[in-house]
Amino acid sequence: MAVANKKAVASVATTESEESTAGPVVPRQTAGISISNMLYSFGKKLGTVAAVYLLGYFDLSFAWLLAPVLLSVVRDEWKKDHEARRSVAKAAATRSEREVILARVGDLPSWVYFPDVERVEWINRILRQLWPNVNHYARTLLKNSIEPGVRDSLAQYKLQGFRFEKMVLGNIPMRIGGVKVYDLDLHRKEIMLDMDLFYAGDCDISFSLGGLKGGIKDFQIHGMVRVVMKPLISDMPLVGGLQIFFLNNPTVDFNLVGVADMLDMPGISDLLRRTIVEVIAGIMVLPNKLPIQLSDSVQAEQLRMPELEGVLRIHVVEARNLMKKDISMLGKGKSDPYAIITVGAEEFRTKTIDNTVNPKWDFWCEAGIASPELQEVTLELWDWDPGFPGVQNDDFLGRATVEVSTIAAKGEADLWLNLDGVKHGTVHVRFTWLTLTADTSALLAALKETQHLRMTSLSTAVLMVYIDSVKDLPGSQSSSKINPYIQLSLGHKQQQTPWKESTRCPVFEQGFTFLVGNPESDTLDIRVINQKSGSELGQLIYNLTGLLEKDDLHVVNQPFPLARAGADAKLIMSMTLRILVPATPPAEDEANGEGEGEGADDAASSGTGGDHSRAGSLRRPPDSPAKSASSTLLKQGSGDSLGTSTAVNNSRTPVDDPMVIATAQPVESVPPGAGSDTSGLHQRSPSVTSSAGEAGLGRIQLTLRYSIQTQKLIIIVHRVANLPLKDKDHIPDPYVKLYLLPDRSKDSKRKTETLKDNLNPVYDERFEYLMSQAELNSSQLEVSVVTKKSWLSSQSPVLGQVILNLGDLGLPKACTIWFDLLPEVPRDS
C-alpha cells in the first residue's frame, strides 16, 4: 500500500510538472453564465416557490411537502450505503490473489482462516478463460429456470408479466475463495468438495414488469457451494455427473436502474430481492440440487433422486424479554412478535402474538436435512406491522443460528438462545434429530411418539419421489395445444414440475420429498395438467401401504397407469419410503472424547437463558453415583457432567482441587483450579466449591468454544461462586459484563441479568461474537462481575475480574473452566 501511495504521489507530481511546462492552463469553466444553466436554476427556484404557494392556497398541511422530501432523503441515504457495500465487494472481486491477501481481514479468502481449505487461484484463472461460455449457460438458466419462478412469485402480489429482456454477466468472472476436498470412503464412489463462491461483476440485465422497464446492475451473490462428483465410473470422463448446490441460502444483493430505479428503496426492492433468493433456493439450495449429467451410462435418477440423511424436528416454544418496537401514546409499547425458521430452502413461520414481549408460540415444524455437517437453522424474530403485502414493513427483533451438526451429534437439544442484532431477547427452542430406516417395525414406535406429543401433524416417515416421464398422453398427434406439467400432493403439501412445451410424452426427471404423517393411511395424489387450458390430462392416486410391502420400501422406474388418460398413458417414476427413528445419543466415551468438542456448546446451552428457575426446570437428573464415579475414574478427565462431579466428591474420589469439575485433557496439562467439560452441561448441580479463589473475590465458571463453520465465539456464563460479603446490610446484586479487548467498544459489550441479594448467582446465559479465527488469536475477553450501582454512586462497583487470552484456551475445542476472580485492572493498562 505504501508503494502504491508513493506511485500515486509520483504520478501527481509528474502530471503537475507536465502542466507547468505545457503553458498556461485553460480553466474548464468560462466566466460567463450559460443561458441553459440560468434557466435551470430559475426553474428550480420557481418550482419551490410554487409548491409552497399551492400548499397555502389550498390550505394543505405542510406534511404534504415534508413527506416526499423525507422519503427522498431516506431513499438516498439507503442507496448510498448499499452502493458503498457493492463497490467494496466489486473491488474485491477484481483483485488478484496478492491484493486480496494485503486487504483488510474481512476480505480475506477462506483458505487464510481454515487449514483444510486450499487456495485455488488456478481455478480462478480457468474461470476467467471460461467466463464467456459461462455467460451463455447463465442466460439459459435465467431464462428457463429463474424467470418462470420470479414471474409466478410476483404474480401473487398482482405484479404481472415479469420477463428478462437482456442478460449479460459482464467481463468480471466469479471468484473461488477456497476449496475443501473431503476424504471419503472409497465405497461411496464419489468426490465431494466445498467452494467459497463469490460473484460481484459488471452484469447488465434488463427486464420488463407489467409495462415497466428496468434493469439490474452490480449483482452480487456469495455462499458456500458444494460440488459432488458421482458416480465414479471406469469409462471416460471417469465421473458420471455433478450435483451442485448451496448448503444454505446465499447472500444476494443488486442495484435497480432505469425506470424501476424508483422501486429501489427500503421495503419495495426487498420484494424482488426476496423473490430472487426464493427462486434460487428452489433450484439449488438444499435439499434442492442442480444436477449435470456427464456420461450417458449414468441414469438421471442417480443424480436427481432426493437424498436425505435425516429429519430435524423443531419446537419453537417461546421468547422472553424482546424489544419493544410499537409506539403507544405513553411512548414505547410492546411488540407483535412472530418467528421465521429457515433450514436451507425451507422456511416456516409461527403465528403472530399480539401486544407482548414474552410470546408463547408452541410451534412445531420439521425439515429434511441432506447434509447436517454444514447446514444451519436460522431463527429470525420480527414485530409485525401492517403494510403492503410482500413488502418488509416489520421491525427486526433478533436472530439466532444453530448448527445442525451439533444437534445431530447429541440427538436432541433444549436451548435458550440469545438473539443477535438487538440489545436483548432470548428464544426457547427444542430440537430432535431423526434418522431414516427401512425397518417397518419402527413405524409403530413413531406413531406412538406423535400420539404422545399430541401432535398428529408431525411425521413418522419420509417419501422420496422421482418423476421420470409420462408416455402417450391424450391429444392430437401435433400436440401443439398440450403443455403438460405434474402436480403432486400429499397431506397439506403440494409440489409441481415445470411445464413442457407441446409434447404428449414429456420428460421431467425431477425429484421431490414429502414428510408423511402415517404411511398406513396416507395417499400420494399425482395429476397431469395442461398448462394452456388448466384441464386435467390424467391422475394417479397411490396408497403408501403398497410401499410398505415392497423390498427395502423402494420401487425403481415403475410404470403406473393414469386414470382418465387412455389405456396407453403411463407415468414412469421411482419411490422410496423411510421410517423416522430418534437418533441414538453417542456412547458416553465417544460423546466426551476429544473429537466431540464441536457440539459441546449447544449441549452446554441446554436450559440456558436469563431466568435461572426456567433453566433449572430443563435439566435432566444426573447419573447415579456409582456410574458417574466409575466412569470418571476410568476416563481420567474425558469430560463428564457436573452432576457426575458431585457424585465423585460424595464417593471421596481423590481430586486435587475441589473446584475441578472434569478435564477434557490430561489433568497435568490443566491450569491449577481449572477444569473442562465438553458434554452434559445441562446436568449441572448446585455449587460444588467452597473456595473463594486466589484473591478471595470468588470464582466464575465459563464455557468457551469457537465455531469454525460460522466464525462465532460462543461464551456461556454459568455461575459465580462465593462472592465476599463485606457489609451484611448491603448484599450485592451481581451481574456479569463481557468486553472484547483490545478494542473495547459498546458493540462488544454483553451482560447477563442482575440477580438481587446473591453471593452465588447462577446465570446460564449464552453470548456470541462474530469474529474470524485470525481475530480470535489476537483478542482478549474481559469478564467482570459487577454489582448494580446504588442511587448515590456514579459507577457500578466491580467485585472481581478475569482477562482471558483467547488464543491460549485451545479453541475451537469447547472447554468449561472455573476462573479465580482478581481485582479490577485499570483500563489504561
From TrEMBL:
It is a peripheral membrane protein; Multi-pass membrane protein. Residues 293-417, 443-566, 696-819 form the C2 domain. Pfam families: C2 (PF00168), SMP_LBD (PF17047). Residues 585-693 are annotated as: Disordered. Keywords: Calcium, Cell membrane, Endoplasmic reticulum, Lipid transport, Lipid-binding, Membrane, Metal-binding, Repeat, Transmembrane, Transmembrane helix, Transport. Coiled coil: none annotated. Residues 116-295 form the SMP-LTD domain. This is Extended synaptotagmin-2. It comes from Gryllus longicercus.
